[in-house]
Amino acid sequence: MNAPERHEMFTLPEGVRKIELLKDSKMANCIQFNIQREDHTIANILRYKLLQHPQVLFAAYRMPHPLEYYVELKVQTTSRTTPVDVMKEAIESLMLEYGNIRSAFDNELLRVDASGDLGRRGAGFGAFGALDPVNAEFGVAGDMGRGPRSDDVDIDF
Asked: How many CB atoms lie within 10 A of CB 62?
């Protein structure tokens, strides 16, 4: 088979940098970021965040080939800032946003654990049945339509 080993999707080879910067000679104030061992998930989130920045004129990404595990993210900014600066801001902002989501999730798990709701069928790990491989059937939480679901929990962010 032509497909590379699965671990190659995640492990960075020795001597390879995670991010490579290539200046675009055809567009003013534009840099292409080649991000190794990443896919659409991080590239699309970064693109979305970059496009929210008022100084970004252009932000797009592509994956050159499905069996090559890197993305090319091109960013063009106004002359007031650089693509590297807005990329740093976007990454810091995303780390803050996702850190807040993680904190809210962890706090909710502690709250549910403290309330003693972990013993209910379908509740699983902190009332998130799909995360519990014992109580979840085929990755679906609860009783698979055989009864009321007991894994509904509201999370306030």
From this structure: 12
